Input
Amino acid sequence: MSVQTGIYCFDNTEVSRLDVERQLWGLEERGPDYSGIFIRGSLGIGYGGFLITPEEQMNQPLVRDDGVLTFDGRLDDRLALCARLDDVSNSLDDATIVLRAYEQLGVNSFRLLMGEFAFVLWDRVQKFLFFVRSFCGSRHLYYIANRRRVIWSSEFDDLVIKSGIDPVVNDAYAIGFAHYQPDINESPFVNVLVVPPGSYVQLKREGETLSPVRTWNPELSPTLELTSDTSYEEACLQEIESAVSDRLRVKGPVFCELSGGLDSSTIALTADRVLDRSGRDLASLTTVSCTFETSREADENFFISLVEKHRGRRGLRIEEQSIKVGLGLEEIEFTGFPNTQHLFPGRYTTTERLMRAANARVLLSGNGGDELFWSDPFGSPELADLLFQGHFRSAFSLAMDWSRAAEVPFWQLFLTQAIAPLTARFSIIPWRPSDGLITSWTTNKSRAFLTEPGRRLGLQFDGQVRPPSRAVRILSLRSSTALLSAGYYHEYHGIYFSHPFAHQRLIEFMLSLPMNQITRPGEPRSLMRRATRGLLPEKTRIRRSKATLEEPLCRMLARNKHALFPTENLEVCRREYAEPKALAEAISQAALGNVERASGLLSLLGLERWLRSVPRIETRRSMLKRSCSYELKTGASAPLCPSEQSTHNSDRPVRNGVEKGELYELRNSGN
Output
């Protein structure tokens, strides 16, 4: 992912070239292709490019008469966007299209943009600064603002290190992480702000930072009514193909995660179909799979092999010994975000190595499929719709069908699926998805946050959206956005993670459908399973469950549980995120092989590791001070570090339209 960073001083303090170079220093691996700097008085913008799409140019920061832009990511639906603009060709790079759109439409253009992106835009005429993120949340922007200045970066850890802020842990983020997901507008530290996905933040020259403005309103999506099941199935498959096709607009080979489940299998086989129809080499797509040969309940080799046979090509395998399951509590370094993948350190480090060897940068992932296609087998918010519309007999009849199919007592299912969504604003009745949040080791402090009015799954929930099923589905999508925006994948710098099921048009399509198309009693993911008939191997298409990671986690705890005792000394217990005695019992039971007691421990252990890394922030600051010869806390200017001088050539192209007193330069990395 490309690097975006900068400084804007509201008090008219001039920003120097060295100030921006300091913000970029040490990030060469994250923006390996080229770097660029723009400076105008009290504004300094830095960029490190990680090139992905065929149209991309080494032109950022992009400077035009009306604005300056840095852009990380990829636009979707470019043809439709360009058709709405005057004299804008689809052959242009994404950054230029975005800036041209703003020149013609202003902030209204932000609502037309779809894709996986984050960008920073400086309006040179009105002197406004904008931070913008797409709804999927997979590209990041963080900032620290006061009345004097704002500093921003796409690199959370680097911003924390170089800004010198006091890293005060945000309880809301930590509790959300430990029990489900942190919400999309939460940052790990209270004094670092996040640009929420699907919104923009405007900063004025007077030092005023306006509240985030939403660029997408999913609750306004119209309802789609087609004539038959077949019509819905064909439309669904078409939207999935469009989502995958947009993410295959890359230069070079592509990797795809293949876990053996419905989501990753659908993406891999849909990608084959898209490549074949466009006349591209099918060998340009490589699947990569993690296997757990010694974990009967976690190993997906059988279903992985089914898809590989269907493709006619064997993918790459990362075996359990290479995944290196462990607590990861030794030699902890602060890397930015809490991350459950730290307990499986070999997974993405090995994937990154394999991708570099193949000259691939993009990794397709099936994240978001569970939420989008509704995998919950225990009911449907259609019941709440029927109740809200006064169709009581139909609601009771459908609830009986769900009760029998899910083997859940009728009144429990009716209360949680029909009534709870209607009373969500008041938290009168908990609904089933939140049952898993409350573990035996949940403290009163955590419980109060997770169950406060207006929250479900620890996420903000708008119970006033109608019909109720749409509100529930929007919450489900918010949870998948929270997964992608929480930064779990950001530290793997050689991988551009791309998520077809976060495609906005696909999401809008699914939101427009009646719930009885998406899921039916005894048929979770009903529409997806019907739509992929003939695409997926039949045993994959009809499977009802998927392996989990509890078994390897239990075996790891059996080897290492001594490092977690006494639990009273754990950071998660000291901060009252977990109750020590109940946690000790859960760990002990999991170490004996009780996989049910392992539920929730993965996130909690990832949080424990991160909390222990926070004091190491000062260590990284000290190392940076020694290596770059300047004191970050005082803001002293720094010379170019020798390593940076040696990796860039001296070519410094200057843009037409750069005004007197401005600095604009680009440097090819030479890699």
About this structure: The chain has four domains: 3-165+192-216+618-668, 225-367+479-541, 373-475, 550-599. The CA atoms of residues 37 and 46 lie 5 Å apart. The first helix runs from residue 17 to 24. Residues 431-436, 630-654 have pLDDT under 50 and may be disordered.
